C-alpha cells in the first residue's frame, strides 16, 4: 500500500529533475573553451526471432540479458576503425583531439543494469591501448586518452564533467550511453530541445556531435555511421523536439 504523500513526493522529485536538466541547458556558457562530444547509442541487442515488436502478453516472458547481440559485437569492432580512421571523425580530432572515452557503467542495484554501453567501446579502448601502455594511442589527432565510467544515476555528474572538466578544454570525448537519456544529455549540454530528436527508435547507426563553447551556442549534428549492412544513410527524423523527462527513473535500456 502506498503511504500517504508518496505520490506527491515522487512527483516533486521528478519536477526537480526536469528543472535541473533545463537549468543545465540554460547555464551552458558559450564563453567556455570549445569541446566536441560524440554521443553514441550502445550497439545492437538481441531481438525477437521474427524481428517484429512482440504482442504485449509475449513481452512479459522476455528476459533481457543486458548483453550485445552478435551484430552488436560486430558494430563494436567496426567502431574501432570508425573512431580512429574515418575522415569526418579525424577532422573533428584535428580541431579538438580525442581526450576521453566515457561509458555508462553497470549498476546492478539500480535501473542501469545493461552492460551494452561498456561492451560497445571495449574494442576501441583495447585498440588504443594496444601499444601496451594505456592511454598511448599512436593514432593521429589523439592525446593520451583517459577512460571514465558514470552510472546511470550519476547523470548530473556526467553533465557537469562534460561541460566543465579541464580535461576536455578544446578536446573531444566519446560517450557510449543508453538511448533513452541521450536526448536529455544533448539538451543538458546546451542544445535547444526543439533541435534534439524526440527519440532514437530502432537506430543504432548514428553518431551525434554536440559542439559546446567557443563563443557560439551549442549545436547538434547527426552523422550516419554507415558501418554495417542495413545501416541507414539518413539522420534520425525530428518529429518534433523531445520533452524533458527524469533521466534516472526511466526504465533500463531496451
Automatic annotation (TrEMBL):
Which organism does this record belong to?
Chytriomyces confervae
Name of the protein in its database record: Uncharacterized protein
Amino acid at each position: 500500500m502506498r503511504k500517504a504523500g508518496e505520490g506527491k513526493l515522487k512527483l516533486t522529485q521528478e519536477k526537480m529533475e526536469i528543472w535541473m536538466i533545463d537549468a543545465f541547458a540554460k547555464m551552458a556558457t558559450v564563453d567556455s573553451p570549445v569541446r566536441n562530444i560524440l554521443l553514441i547509442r550502445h550497439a545492437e541487442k538481441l531481438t525477437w526471432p521474427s524481428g517484429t515488436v512482440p504482442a504485449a502478453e509475449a513481452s512479459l516472458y522476455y528476459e533481457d540479458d543486458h548483453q550485445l547481440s552478435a551484430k552488436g559485437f560486430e558494430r563494436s569492432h567496426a567502431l574501432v576503425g570508425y573512431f580512429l580512421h574515418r575522415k569526418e571523425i579525424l577532422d573533428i580530432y584535428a580541431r579538438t583531439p580525442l581526450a576521453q572515452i566515457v561509458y555508462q557503467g553497470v549498476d546492478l542495484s539500480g535501473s542501469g543494469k545493461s552492460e551494452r554501453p561498456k561492451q560497445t567501446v571495449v574494442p576501441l579502448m583495447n585498440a588504443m591501448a594496444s601499444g601496451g601502455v594505456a592511454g598511448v594511442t599512436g593514432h593521429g589527432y589523439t592525446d593520451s586518452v583517459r577512460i571514465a565510467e558514470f552510472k546511470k544515476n550519476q547523470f548530473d555528474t556526467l553533465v557537469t564533467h562534460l561541460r566543465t572538466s579541464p580535461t576536455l578544454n578544446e578536446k573531444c570525448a566519446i560517450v557510449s550511453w543508453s538511448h533513452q537519456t541521450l536526448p536529455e544529455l544533448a539538451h543538458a549540454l546546451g542544445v535547444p530541445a526543439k533541435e534534439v530528436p524526440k527519440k532514437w527508435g530502432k537506430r543504432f547507426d548514428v553518431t551525434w556531435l554536440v559542439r559546446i563553447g567557443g563563443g557560439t551556442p551549442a549545436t547538434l549534428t547527426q552523422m550516419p555511421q554507415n558501418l554495417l549492412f542495413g545501416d541507414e544513410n539518413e539522420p534520425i527524423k525530428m518529429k518534433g523536439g523531445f520533452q524533458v523527462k527524469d533521466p534516472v527513473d526511466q526504465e533500463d535500456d531496451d
